[in-house]
């Protein structure tokens, strides 16, 4: 895929090749997708409402299809890029809108996978507050994001783990560098301390990336 100088999902070439690109850049992507589906089984009730925040082409929706069908739950997918919306192949309903501009209804289970890091940093705390305030009792929000690295030498170690995994998956070195440079000012890693304010529990970590669950007390 041709990496744009400044990364954007509002690019027909990026949208068309995104599924292959993300798996090359993030070799754990399918593993985490499967884990999210397993987590969902613990929180999606019969006739529940599920949100996929930053749905891209519908990867999470497809992973959740079986549990949605089994329990008669409704999926609402939200995706800000019109080009990505054109490529959507998941279940439920799709709304082409930024999460910051969306009016969330009370819901049982939500997923924000690689989405918050593309929201302007100043808007992330308010968005998280609004989303989590709408989780029904007993429900949960799963967050999978690039996060700020730990302090000291481990910050270098975790970053190199991520780079090494991309290279091992077959991503050319020039594309790895081009992608990192293109993300400058576009992708802002999420601060784990912010997620901790909402009671987030970490369940996955690889290099710079981590997965969390934020629950609403039953």
Describe this structure in words.
- There is one protein chain.
- The relative contact order is 0.17.
- It is built from 8 helices and 7 strands.
- The chain is globular.
- α5 links the parallel β4 and β5.
- Strands 3-2-1-4-5-7-6 form a 7-stranded mixed sheet.
- It is α/β, with parallel strands linked by helices and 218 residues long.
Could you give a quick summary of the protein structure above?
This protein is of the alpha/beta class and 218 residues long.
Instruction: Give the helix/strand class.
Output: alpha/beta
Query: Share of helix among residues?
Result: 25-40%
Strand order of the largest sheet: 3-2-1-4-5-7-6
Q: How large, in whole angstroms, is the Cα Rg?
A: 17 Å
Key descriptive features of the protein:
single chain; 218 residues; alpha/beta; seven-stranded mixed sheet; 39% helix
Helix and strand arrangement:
Elements (H helix, E strand, L loop, with lengths): L11 H14 L3 H12 L8 E5 L5 H13 L2 E5 L3 H5 L6 E3 L11 E7 L10 H10 L1 E12 L6 H16 L4 H10 L9 H6 L3 E6 L2 E7 L3
Parallel strand pairs: 1-2, 1-4, 2-3, 4-5
Antiparallel strand pairs: 5-7, 6-7
Helix pairs in contact: 2-3
């Amino acid at each position: 895929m041709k990496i744009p100088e400044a990364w954007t999902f509002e690019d027909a070439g990026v949208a068309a090749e995104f599924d292959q690109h993300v798996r090359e850049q993030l070799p754990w992507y399918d593993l985490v997708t499967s884990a999210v589906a397993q987590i969902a089984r613990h929180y999606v009730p019969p006739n529940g409402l599920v949100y996929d925040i930053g749905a891209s082409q519908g990867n999470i929706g497809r992973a959740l299809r079986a549990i949605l069908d089994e329990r008669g739950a409704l999926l609402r997918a939200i995706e800000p890029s019109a080009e990505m919306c054109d490529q959507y192949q998941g279940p439920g309903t799709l709304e082409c809108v930024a999460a910051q501009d969306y009016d969330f209804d009370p819901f049982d289970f939500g997923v924000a996978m690689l989405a918050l890091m593309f929201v302007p940093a100043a808007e992330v705390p308010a968005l998280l507050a609004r989303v989590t305030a709408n989780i029904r009792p007993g429900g949960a929000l799963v967050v999978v994001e690039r996060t700020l690295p730990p302090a000291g030498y481990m910050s270098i170690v975790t970053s190199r783990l991520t780079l090494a995994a991309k290279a091992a998956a077959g991503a050319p070195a020039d594309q790895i560098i081009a992608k990192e440079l293109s993300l400058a000012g576009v992708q802002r890693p999420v601060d784990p301390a912010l997620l901790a304010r909402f009671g987030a529990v970490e369940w996955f970590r690889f290099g710079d990336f981590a997965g969390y669950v934020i629950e609403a007390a039953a």
